[in-house]
Specification:
It holds the Pfam family Glyco_hydro_28. It comes from Streptacidiphilus pinicola. One of its GO terms (molecular function) is polygalacturonase activity. This is Pectinesterase catalytic domain-containing protein. This protein folds into three domains: about 280 residues, Single-stranded right-handed beta-helix, Pectin lyase-like (Pectate Lyase C-like, 3 Solenoid), CATH 2.160.20; about 140 residues, 3 Solenoid (Pectate Lyase C-like), CATH 2.160.20.10; about 220 residues, Pectate Lyase C-like, CATH 2.160.20.10. By secondary structure, the chain is mainly beta. It contains seven helices and 58 strands. Strand 1, helix 1 and strand 2 form a beta-alpha-beta unit.
């Protein structure tokens, strides 16, 4: 951080009173002025400057004499009106000097009482393109006036993006940033002003630091010791694609001897990129402990309460509010007229647990050794009719069931070339993990009689209803798991449902039965692979699930489910073979997994009970029907975070999905309910027919339920190689229950869409939905469409 020269306050005297005017700017010449600066020069105090859509490559300075000036983007979308320049502190000036930090600013707004709305202000300086420049501070906005309001703006840069300050450090200088998106890396909010960041999105950019390294710092305040208030970040969201633990919240800047930084971060979502346990750091020999740094009621993986993360009490927090910061000596309260929520909504936080990669249990209660070798996945006739390992495995599971909170393993072990187990339905009890050796395969029985559920339709037949087959593995009780040991080669244990093999005594496979059911308009009675019922803290780890006859994993009820390192490999042509379905579930994470199947890759359901606090991240999907919510949502689905995933419409065998979607929420009046606070961040899809689907009339279902999708955010989305006729869907139920959606930084090569009854905020969105009851408004924000790569499904 380079020191900023201090100088006396400029005069704030107003010129003679006049009737406020609106001056217009358009880069193409279709207005009074072609440049923003020309309009500023012509404006008087109290005027409004309306800036048309376009790019304005210039620096803009508003002097202190232009009190009460308003600068506004004419379209209402900050992304439409971009003021950019690319100076850095070390950029040379004529005569041999350099700009310095303050001189690098793209916009310098010194006038008191200014309002700036729906503009993008960018410092485009690139370190990579200017390796010879060492002082890389590059200010986008220098805000240096009292009673300034910034609303719905994008302020984008890297180091020292936003300077909130006064040339006179003891002067009353208050600034209110509301519904703004601000991006940067090093000290990107800095200065001595009293500044409130309210319902903002702060994008901590990834500069490539490894986990635990340093990407940067959000704040570098240099509040004067005489001032109670410096920076307040409240009800905001910090987003970052950076590795975990690579950002600090702040450090104390001391350009004057009397600076004592003051920053409070409260009621704000903090990502894993923030060093949650110790979020503050020293600067230039000054300890962060000598500053006034505090947090209160923050959430997200980067929020922690530790000795190195000071927290306000509830009583103290009552003194650190937007109103208290901005009131000053005249009772200024710009928040009183601000909207009650950010236009784009707040981002979902997902799983409320602190989830990390699981570990296999070290305590083995019982070991069951393989006696079969099934190189062709088929055993002898007698073994197929009566699977020899059902009783052996179940006795071990029964003997190891836990009554306390401990966890033990029942291990399926290989014996030389014998690596196969053949079994009918099994039950995993409380506190035990079914643990597979790396080379072991647990094969599911082909005999439908082994799965028969009493009082239900015959397993292995078509009927007007389903439910005739028990799952291959049922999990009942807390702290249980199904896990495998992963070898150094990447091999891990697997469960093979053999959905492709002929059902014993039938002329078709399980998958063939599912196809026949579709043609006949009936239900197939096929077994699921794994079902966990009300099993809190269930773990599925480093296990391969192959060729399930029906759904692979259903997590029904329960609080706490982690699926990590799971590889599901079933062809896209296998009907009704969902990957992982949380239903009526709370606190779920599906991470670092590879999912290929013939239906939804993930389907979050809220039928008989609500689902909430769910994270789907760092996963890859192949040939599926997408990452889905629904269709049962009648009990509600909320707080779902879908982040850093890829979706490919073709499976590893070259089969094209029969219903290839990217992300979708689907329901109808037949089984609908409220779906709220769902965030899709940095999603890449390719070769799909429906990049996005938000459909409240799914499959034409009718009834008295009310499907209502609101608070849905798609930020950072790219669709490539879309199939012929590809189209997205944005359809709310009716005018009273519109789809509430933000499309931020969206780029799709298929722009066709169907839309109705939707209230959409948009930024850098090339889909441009329109239709009956559709409104689209602009909102500011930083971020960018992700660059995409689509890895091949790993060899199993």
């Amino acid at each position: 951080m380079a020191a900023i020269p201090l100088f006396a306050d400029a005069s704030t005297a107003s010129p003679a009173a006049h009737a406020p005017r609106t001056l217009t700017v358009a880069a193409d010449g279709g207005a009074q002025y072609r440049t923003v600066q020309a309009a500023v020069d012509a404006a008087a105090a109290g005027d409004t400057i309306s800036i048309a859509k376009g790019g304005y490559h210039e620096t803009v300075t508003v002097p202190a004499s232009k009190t009460g000036l308003t600068l506004v983007g004419a379209t209402g979308r900050a992304a439409d009106v971009v003021i950019s320049y690319g100076n850095a502190s070390g950029t040379p000036e004529p005569g041999g000097s350099t700009h310095g930090t303050l001189g690098s600013a793209t916009a310098t707004f010194a006038a008191p009482g200014m309002t700036v709305k729906n503009l993008t202000i960018v410092n485009s300086f690139s370190r990579a393109a200017n390796p010879g420049i060492k002082n890389t501070q590059a200010v986008a906005l220098a805000a240096e006036g009292d009673r300034q309001v910034y609303e719905g703006d994008r302020i984008l840069g890297h180091q020292d993006t936003l300077l909130a300050w006064s040339p006179n450090p003891t002067a009353q200088t208050r600034q209110y940033f509301r519904d703004d998106d601000i991006s940067g890396d090093v000290d990107f909010l800095f200065g001595n002003a009293t500044a409130v960041f309210d319902h903002d999105t702060l994008d901590a950019r990834d500069d490539g630091a490894a986990a635990g390294g340093v990407n940067g710092v959000l704040t570098a305040a240099n509040t004067e010791a005489s001032k109670k208030y410096g920076f307040l970040i409240t009800d905001s969201t910090v987003v970052s694609s950076a590795k975990a633990g690579t950002y600090w919240l702040g450090r104390p800047w001391h350009p004057t001897a009397t600076a004592v930084a003051q920053v409070v971060v409260r009621n704000t979502v903090l990502p894993a990129a923030v060093k949650g346990a110790a979020p503050w750091t020293d600067m230039s020999g000054f300890s962060w402990r000598s500053a006034r740094f505090d947090s209160y009621a923050n959430t997200g993986p980067g929020a922690a309460v530790t000795a190195d993360s000071p927290q306000l009490t509830a009583g103290q927090a009552a003194q650190y509010t937007t109103g208290a910061y901005l009131a000053g000596t005249d009772g200024w309260n710009p928040a009183a007229t601000a909207p009650s929520t950010a236009p784009a909504g707040t981002l979902a936080t997902g799983d409320a647990r602190q989830v990390s990669e699981p570990r296999v249990p070290t305590t083995v209660c019982a070991t069951v050794t393989a006696t079969l070798a099934m190189p062709n996945r088929v055993a002898s006739g007698s073994a197929e009719a009566t699977p020899p390992d059902t009783g052996r495995i179940q006795r071990a599971l029964d003997s190891c069931a836990q009554t306390g909170s401990g966890t033990v393993a029942v291990k399926l072990a290989a014996a030389s070339s014998r690596t196969a187990f053949l079994s009918g339905p099994l039950t995993v009890h409380r506190g035990e993990v079914l643990l597979l050796d790396p080379t072991v395969t647990l094969f599911g029985s082909r005999n439908p009689a082994n799965y028969q559920v009493s009082g239900k339709p015959a397993c292995g037949t078509l009927a007007s209803s389903s439910g005739g087959c028990a799952p291959l593995v049922t999990v009942a009780g807390a702290n249980a798991g199904i896990e495998a040991v992963r070898a150094a080669s990447g091999t891990q244990g697997r469960i093979d449902g053999r959905g492709d093999e002929t059902i014993l005594g039938k002329g078709t496979s399980w998958w063939g039965l599912a196809t026949a059911a579709q043609k006949a308009g009936e239900n197939q009675n096929n077994p699921r692979l794994i079902q966990a019922n009300n099993s809190d803290n269930f773990t599925l780890y480093d296990v391969d699930l192959v060729d399930s006859p029906n759904f692979h994993v259903v997590y029904n009820g329960g609080d706490g489910f982690t699926a990590w390192g799971v590889r599901i490999k079933t062809p896209a042509t296998a009907r009704n073979t969902d990957g992982i379905d949380p239903a009526g579930a709370t606190n779920v994470t599906v991470a670092d997994s590879w999912i290929m199947d013939g239906d939804d890759g993930v389907a979050i359901k809220g039928g008989s009970a609500a689902s909430r606090n769910i994270t789907i991240e760092n996963d890859h999907f192949y040939g599926t029907h997408g990452i889905s919510i629904g269709s049962e949502t009648n009990s509600g689905v909320s707080n779902v975070l879908v982040r850093d995933n890829t979706v490919t419409g073709t499976d590893a065998y070259g089969n094209v999905s029969g219903s290839s979607s990217g992300i979708r929420i689907k329901s109808s009046p037949a089984n609908g309910g409220k779906v709220s606070d769902v965030s899709y961040l940095d999603t890449c899809v390719t070769a799909v027919r429906a990049p996005m689907v938000f459909d409240t009339h799914y499959s034409g279902g009718s009834g008295s339920f009310v499907p209502w999708f609101t608070g849905i955010t798609v930020e950072g989305f790219r669709a490539t190689a879309s199939t012929s006729g590809a189209k997205s869907t944005f359809v709310g139920l009716d005018a009273s229950h519109p789809l509430g959606l933000a499309l931020l930084d969206v780029a799709s090569d298929a722009t066709a869409n169907t839309a109705a009854y939707a209230a959409i905020t948009a930024r850098d969105d090339n889909l441009e939905p329109s239709g009956t009851g559709v409104t689209v408004t602009g909102v500011s924000g930083s971020g960018s469409v992700p660059s995409c790569s689509f890895p091949a499904f790993p060899a199993l």
